[in-house]
Write a structure and sequence with these properties.
InterPro entries: DDE_dom (IPR032874), IS_Transposase (IPR052183), RNaseH-like_sf (IPR012337), RNaseH_sf (IPR036397), Transpos_IS6 (IPR047930)
Oligomer: single chain
Shape: globular
Order of helices and strands: HHHEEEHEHEHHH
CATH architecture of the largest domain: 2-Layer Sandwich
Number of domains: 2
Keywords: DNA recombination, DNA-binding, Transposition
Radius of gyration: 19 Å
GO molecular function: DNA binding
Protein name: Integrase core domain protein
Number of strands: 5
Strand order of the largest sheet: 3-2-1-4-5
Function: Involved in the transposition of the insertion sequence.
Length: 235
């Protein structure tokens, strides 16, 4: 069966669309900043066009990245999970962005709720486990919702808590927080859920952990990541 071309009926080339989406999601840039950077490259598009591209193609690219990575992640990401939630203001109301991160800093799942009670924690855990399976160890903070949810699932004995143990998950919020400041926060829960899911996938794709490699290997991995990005959505 021939794969449908997602760029069909668009006047701009797929290369330009991929570049615009990558710049907006990957880097802490506003839509107008991306418009200016593209203009310097001789590409004349409106920031509203970039907004449309990101909304249309961002989830598509993120889903393709997840599809390619999830099978490999199943093999080693179940050793240790780090779970944490962060406060996000939407129109003055506090919402919670839950995040599951593996032992290497790979963001496995992002989930937005209005509460952080047992019901919300249970829904978040089940969503992550449905995609990646059950972890051997789950590191959390001392929020009681985690323990209550894991008792229902049956893996309460796998939970670990303690000071500094969950730094891996807390550090994973930093790239999102930088993006949130540039975007002047969010106005709807569904917008937050959509952007956090896309941002997590793109961050995973380009997270090369340069501190672990020498310069030559880092340049090689960066080139591979860019090559794979330029092939997303190819018919």
């Amino acid at each position: 069966m021939t794969k449908r071309d997602p760029f069909k009926c668009f006047h701009s080339s797929p290369e330009v669309i991929r570049l615009a989406v990558m710049m907006y999601v990957r880097f802490p840039l506003s839509l107008r900043s991306v418009e200016d950077l593209l203009h310097e490259r001789g590409i004349d598009v409106s920031y509203e066009t970039i907004r449309f591209w990101w909304n249309r193609f961002g989830p598509l690219f993120a889903a393709e990245i997840r599809r390619k990575r999830v099978q490999n992640l199943r093999e080693y990401s179940n050793w240790r999970w780090h779970l944490d939630e962060v406060f996000v203001k939407i129109n003055g109301e506090t919402n919670y962005l839950w995040r599951a991160v593996d032992h290497e800093g790979e963001v496995l799942e992002s989930f937005v709720t209005k509460r952080r009670d047992r019901k919300a924690a249970l829904k978040f855990l089940r969503k992550a486990m449905k995609r990646y399976g059950s972890p051997h160890v789950v590191v959390t903070d001392k929020l009681r919702s985690y323990g209550a949810a894991m008792k229902i699932i049956g893996n309460a004995q796998k939970q670990e808590t303690g000071r500094w143990r969950n730094n891996r998950s807390e550090n994973s919020h930093q790239p999102f927080r930088r993006r949130e400041r540039v975007m002047l926060r969010f106005r709807q829960m569904k917008s937050l859920q959509k952007f956090s899911a896309v941002h997590s996938s793109v961050h995973n794709h380009f997270n090369l952990e340069r501190h672990l490699y020498n310069r030559d290997n880092f340049k090689l991995n960066r080139a591979v990541a860019l090559t794979e990005w330029r092939q997303l959505g190819a018919a």
